[in-house]
Amino acid sequence: MSKHIVAAGLFAGLALGAQAQTKWDLPAAYPASNFHTENLVQFAKDIEQATGGKLQITVHPNGSLFKAPEIKRAVQGAQAQMGEILLAAYQNEWQIFGLDALPFLATSYAEARKLYQAQKPALQKKLADQGIMLLYSVAWPPQGIYSKKPLNSLADLKGSKWRAYSPSTARIAELVGAQPVTVQAAELSQAMATGVVESFMTSGATGYDSKAYEHIKYYYNTQAWLPKNAVIVNKKAFDALDKPTQEAILKAAAAAEERGWKTSAAKDQEYLDLLKKNGMNIVEPSPQMKTEMRKVVGEPMLKEWLDKAGPEGKAIVEAFQKM
């Protein structure tokens, strides 16, 4: 009889142990070697350590669990508890998501940080309405133009097959007379190899990750904008955790945000050096080209965005410009 009681007690203990450990998934769109993904892995490790292994988070890189456009919906619908998204990819859903992809609005890390501070309260509120919490956000390095052929002016981009991965990059294609082709980061290398893509705007990071130097020889360092990735969590999943675990997540998120911004800035030059080492021509755009970019792309896109974003968007831009 006593053996049965001991066995029952053991089973109860095991059941409690199993209950106490929570396993979460965190889908991400970029390769394991990308600094955003490395930061996510460190974030997950910090949480596991702080909770004594009670919360284990598995990072799924390179669109392996959900493709980039599906990640936000997966977190909303609790198919994944956490996820990393590119905010600008969701601009069609809500204009404010695309604020940091407006060309020549914020063109340095210091300006991008200010833009984030101006945008953050609205972001948090919108995501909360969708059952999501914003944990942290990190900027990509500044965006430049990759081109198969040398560019003396924007007219040289006319008719070229231009990779679009967000509403704003598709709009740039229209403004410069290029043909937009939708290609996610995970498919970019293949698209260049097969001639589907001849030009695009992205960071040195994505250019290096996708080995752009194997197919494209020119990078114009326009520093046009610094889009952000955001790490989000399903609010119900977060609320179901005990207080110490919630605090561990928030603490790890704050650390990941600081670490991510520092790494991004340090990596910017590192990636450009790596591209150059692999045969890419890194070109500073001419003053004429910079002026053209602002006139043809920057000013019209800001005006269009303000028209669509309405008073809410206008207030955020004004707050940013006063900082």
UniProtKB/TrEMBL annotation:
Record-annotated membrane-spanning stretches: none
InterPro entries in UniProt: DctP_fam, TRAP_DctP_sf
Keyword Calcium among UniProt keywords: no
Domain of life: Bacteria
Keyword field contains Lipid metabolism: no
Keywords tagged on the record: Signal
Signal peptide: 1-20
PANTHER family: PTHR33376, SIALIC ACID-BINDING PERIPLASMIC PROTEIN SIAP
NCBIfam families for this protein: TRAP_S1 (NF037995)
Protein name: TRAP transporter substrate-binding protein
Species of provenance: Caldimonas aquatica
